[in-house]
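Protein of interest.
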Amino acid sequence: MLLAGAVSAAYPATMPTTSPAARKRRVFLVDDHPLVREWLASLITQSPDLEVCGETDDPRAAPDLIGAAKADAAVVDLTLRDASGLELIKNLRALHPGVAVVVLSMHEESLYAERALRAGARGYVMKRDTTKQILAALRTVLGGGVHVGAGFAAAMATRVLGQRNGEVRSPIEQLSDRELEVFRLLGRGRGTPQIAEALGLSLKTVQAYCARIKDKLGLSSMTGLLREAVRWDQENA
């Protein structure tokens, strides 16, 4: 059942007019900005080999809608109405492993690309990238490949070399996916009850995450944690 106010749509499958090999690949859009969905739909519709099969701004409804639409791929934003795009990607991997996920995000690759790939995404594209990059990413993941920026690929190679040399990861990198989501929402002014509701967690669990984040970042108080979260969010917005 869709949440109140959610914008969702699934479009009927079109039968191929020629051979099965010529069938357009079906792409589902998950983003909470109507203008982004409209822009993506227009871009994909102009492609001879791709078509939009549905869209939603509701991450909780997305897995069911994607399954019903028989999507081949999904374009997913990571910041969805205070929900976790990473958790959505994990759910899609579990429920619809055949759907290739491309992340389209405003966040730098260095912040989320590795996490998104671990969660099950096959591609990561920045919203500031060109339309050619988005289409290239979709075609790459639909062909079974992985699409990331050249800068991220180079950074990953450097990180592997650094780990071999015993270098320690930054404190933010040591946060789990859930801890990073809690940290991000704290930086956006959300209180722990709001975070618990947005992420579908108990208040006690969110408080435990806050305690672990403080330990990992070397902070001694909740005030210090909030200050650091706001600073980090402003730097990475």
Notes: The domain at 8-150 is CATH 3.40.50.2300 (Rossmann fold). The chain has a mean pLDDT of 83.
